[in-house]
Amino acid sequence: MAEIKKYAPAIYLERNGYEGCRARVFLYGATGNFIGTVSFHDPGAPPPPTGVGANGELFASASFGIYGDVLDLLRHEGPVFYERVNNSIRLTCGQEPAGEAET
């Protein structure tokens, strides 16, 4: 599990995206080290491959429909972690108190 300290979103404007992706979010750790990406594909399009890189980087894919949700999580929550659990790659946050957003 790696804590995400910085991220860089990219949206590809070409008609068919780039390498099967409509957008990507590049993720970086505490020392600025690259820890992986989340690639987003158009609904109905085949997803880009997922897996683990040679240096332990995680490469995940998801529908472009949740691109805004992922950015929202990265912008407003913390700490945020990127991890592999069994055959699934996920973004997760630390524990929060119940009713935290209530006024």
Features:
103 residues, 1 helix, three-stranded antiparallel beta sheet, five-stranded mixed beta sheet, mainly beta
The main sheet orders its strands as 2-3-4-6-5
The structural class is: mainly beta
Radius of gyration over alpha carbons? 14 Å
Largest sheet: 5 strands, mixed
Q: What is the overall pLDDT average? A: 87
Number of helices: 1
Shape: globular
Query: What is the count of β-strands?
Result: 8
Give unreliable regions as ranges: none
Fraction in beta strands: 35-45%
Give the terminus-to-terminus CA distance: 33 Å
Quaternary status of these chains?
A: single chain
N-to-C SSE string, H for helix and E for strand: EEEEEEHEE
- Which range best describes the helical content: under 10%, 10-25%, 25-40%, 40-55%, 55-70% or over 70%? under 10%
Plain-language structure description:
By secondary structure, this protein is mainly beta. It is 10% helix and 42% strand. A five-stranded mixed sheet has the order 2-3-4-6-5, covered by helices on one side. The longest helix is centred in the C-terminal third of the chain and has 10 residues, at 67-76. The chain starts with a strand and ends in a 10-residue tail after the last strand. The mean pLDDT is 87.
